[in-house]
């Protein structure tokens, strides 16, 4: 049975507790060099994937540079950071001249397929909401958070959630590393 092109490209849709939608995207590393990145390249690592609306905007650089400034915290948690928008890698590279060197790559989703699969695409505008996703070393989506375009995300909260997920235990509201958990998850 032959599939139409549209049927072959049916969205994978991201759901917490299920395998994260796989993707391959062109990206630019923090030094401005182009590479191809796939989610499967990071098997056995925690992945923090965040989407942002556009390069050369006002709120986005505050998030992007804070993730870079705090990269050592993520490395200590065996996590990699991947930033993504619907801009091109050439736009990303040009923006790096303003942002300075980043310690993680910015990926391009010009087809909008990845943004659609993760549920962040605003189709009528061709841009992504601010979405943050934590994917475990087995490729399972463990955390998803969506923000309005006008509100920057909290990198503190992303670090806290990553710590909590790595305990493998039940963590109460406002739990912080070093605090008591509620016990095993089951």
UniProtKB/TrEMBL annotation:
Signal peptide: none annotated. GO terms for biological process: cell redox homeostasis; cellular response to stress; hydrogen peroxide catabolic process; response to oxidative stress. It comes from Candidatus Uhrbacteria bacterium CG_4_9_14_3_um_filter_36_7. This is Thioredoxin peroxidase. One of its GO terms (cellular component) is cytosol. Keywords: Antioxidant, Oxidoreductase, Peroxidase, Redox-active center. InterPro entries: AhpC/TSA, Peroxiredoxin, Peroxiredoxin_AhpC-typ, Thioredoxin-like_sf, Thioredoxin_domain. CDD domains: PRX_Typ2cys. Residues 14-167 form the Thioredoxin domain. The active site is at residue 60.
């Amino acid at each position: 049975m032959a599939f139409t092109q549209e049927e072959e490209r049916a969205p994978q849709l991201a759901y917490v507790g299920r395998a994260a939608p796989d993707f391959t995207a062109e990206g630019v590393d923090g030094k401005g060099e182009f590479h191809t990145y796939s989610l499967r390249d990071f098997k056995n690592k925690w992945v923090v994937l965040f989407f942002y609306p556009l390069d050369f905007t006002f709120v986005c650089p505050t998030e992007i540079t804070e993730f870079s400034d705090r990269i050592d915290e993520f490395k200590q948690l065996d996590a990699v950071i991947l930033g993504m928008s619907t801009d091109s890698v050439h736009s990303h590279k040009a923006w790096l001249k303003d942002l300075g060197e980043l310690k993680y790559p910015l990926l391009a989703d010009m087809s909008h397929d990845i943004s659609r699969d993760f549920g962040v695409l605003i189709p009528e505008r061709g841009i992504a909401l601010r979405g943050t996703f934590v994917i475990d070393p087995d490729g399972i989506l463990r955390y998803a958070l969506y923000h309005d375009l006008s509100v920057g995300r909290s990198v503190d909260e992303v670090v806290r959630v990553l710590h909590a997920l790595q305990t493998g235990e039940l963590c109460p509201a406002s739990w912080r590393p070093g605090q008591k958990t509620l016990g095993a998850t089951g």
